[in-house]
Amino acid sequence: xxxxxxxxxxxxxxxxxxxxxxxxxxxxxxxxxxxxxxxxxxxxxxxxxxxxxxxxxxxxxxxxxxxxxxxxxxxxxxxxxxxxxxxxxxxxxxxxxxxxxxxxxxxxxxxxxxxxxxxxxxxxxxxxxxxxxxxxxxxxxxxxxxxxxxxxxxxxxxxxxxxxxxxxxxxxxxxxxxxxxxxx
Length: 184
Description:
- By secondary structure, this protein is mainly β.
- Helices cover about 5% and strands about 55% of the residues.
- It has one helix at about 70-80; strands at about 5, 10-15, 20-30, 35-40, 40-50, 55-65, 65-70, 90-100, 105-115, 115-130, 140-150, 170-180.
- The protein is elongated, with a radius of gyration of 18 Å.
- The two termini are about 20 Å apart.
């Protein structure tokens, strides 16, 4: 099994493989610790033009109820009306609007929608290579990250701490570790 990172090898349509990908987040809790987690159910398509990245597109849809931080009580609170309100807003989505080459990687610019609030975000993405897996699929890996302010998306619930500060940080780091299979 050999890997390659040649940009031209990325050209084509790719389906995100959720069983080998992670769409994660990290946010400060009580000003002193970081809570990490991910969304378990999502799908997406990448249409990549390795020779001209500006012609590339990416779309991702996440099931908001698949939020998982490792604590059932916390997860129920977050998917409830104080935060994601999955009864009213069952999906989160990202649709690219621009792609720019950035040295060895890409800057993916697009519309992130949470609770029907859409904001433009930029995601720094790197190719982790292309490989033919043992089952004959052409598979590409990508990693990336960005940071958002949750309040920009209407996620404003919080509690003041007695010692000062807040329970839930405003900044949310979003991380992507994506495996995608090339479609014929």
